[in-house]
Amino acid sequence: MTSQIRRGRELQPLPLEGLRVLDATHIVAGPYCAMILADMGAEVIKIERPGAGDQARRNVPFVAGPDGAQVSARYLGVNRNKKSISLDLRDPVAKRAFENMLRVSDVLLDNWGPGAMGRLGYPYDRLSEINPGLVYASITGYGDSDGLRGPYSDWPANNPCVQGMGGWMITTGTSESGPQMVGDNMGDSVPGVWTALGVMLALESRRQTGKGQHVDMAMYDCMVAHTTSSMPLYQSTGQVTTTARENMFSAQLTLRASDGYVVLAGAGNADDKWRAMWQLIGRPELADDPRYLGRGVTGPFYFSNIVPAIEEWSQHIPKRELNQRLLDCGFSMGIVQDSADLDGCPHLETRNMFVDSGDTYGGSFRTVNTPVQLTGCVDTPANPPPTLGQHNAEVLCGIGGLTTDELAQLAAEGKA
User: Fold this and answer.
1) Whose CA, among 200, 261, 338, 410, lies 20 to 30 Å from 313?
2) pLDDT tens readout for residues 77-89
3) The whole model's pTM is what?
4) Rounded alpha-carbon distances, angstroms, from residue 307 to 253, 312, 332
C-alpha cells in the first residue's frame, strides 16, 4: 500500500487497490475502461493474442524506440498501468491457466463481439461456475445477454457506427455538410466510462450479496443515453433535432477571432449581457431592437444578423482576449481549443490532467489523465503501457499455475 502526505495529512490508498481485473479487450472501448480501473489502483492483467497482441499496437501514428522499434501512440494512450500476458485461449494448457486466473480475479472484461467468450467455451454460466463472485463485463455494439438481445445484437459495431445509430451524427455538422461524426473516438470512450461504472455497481452488489453477475454493456445504449437535449425536446414537442440551424432553441454561437474561435452559450433572454456587448463593440443602437437582445428569434436570425454584427468586431481580436472581454459582459464563454491548446493549458496542468507514463522504451509519452480527482487519496500511478507478454512469467507461473516448462512449451508453439 502506498502512502503520501498532502497538505499535512496522510492520504488514503487508491480505492481499487487489491482488485484484480482480467482485461481481455482490444482497440479502445475495453482498454479505456480497464485503464480507468488501473488508474484507480486495480491490478489489470491485459490478455493478448500471442505474436500480434492488441490490434491497437498496429495503429498509426507510431512513436520510435531504440534500434528501429516502434510503438503505437494510440495504444500508449489507453493502456498505462497494466500488465500484459500473451495467451491463446484455444489451447488446453492456456485454458487451464486462464481458469486458474479466473478463480482468483474479481472482474473479467471482454469486447471481442457478441458470443466471443462463449465460442471459446466461456459463456457466462461457465464463468460463474468457475468463480461465482466474478463480475463479467462485456462491451458489444448492441448488447449480448439472455433476454436483452434485440434485432441488432449480431451486428458488428465501431465508433462511427454507434455515433450514427445513437443520434450524435444527425446533430453534428451543418445542413450543407450533412451528418458528421464527432471527431474523436467518443463511440468507444463513452461506453468505456459507462462500463467502468457498471463494473463498480456490480462489485457493490457483490459486496452485499456475495454474487457476481454479467454486466451487459451496449455501445449503442451508452450513446443514446447521452442525448440529453434532443430526446427531451422530441418527447415534449415532437421536434427532431438535426444539423439545421433553425433547430437551435437558445443562443449557442461560434464566433470568429483573429486566431481561431470562441463559443458563446446560453444567452437567450439575457438583456443586460447583450446590452453590455453591443456597447463594448460600438453598436449600442442594436440594443434598441429586441431581436438583438435574443428575444423571440430563432437560429436563422442569429446566424444571418447577430453573428455577422459581432464578427465585424471580433475577427480582429485574439481568441483569448475576445473570450475574456465577453466573459466580462457576463456571457458563458469558452475558447475553441485544438490539441496543442489543450497540451499547453495551464488550467489542465493545475488539475493534474496530464501524466507522463512513458513510451515503453524508457522515453517520455504524455497522456491525458483519468479526470476523477480523489483529493483524499494518493496520486494515480503512471506506469508505462506493457510490452506484449511482458508479464507472462510473473502471471502465468503465478496465479495461472503453470510451470516454467509449460510456459516455455506454450511459447515455443506460439501460444504464449
Assistant:
1) 338
2) 999 999 999 999 9
3) 0.94
4) 7, 9, 16
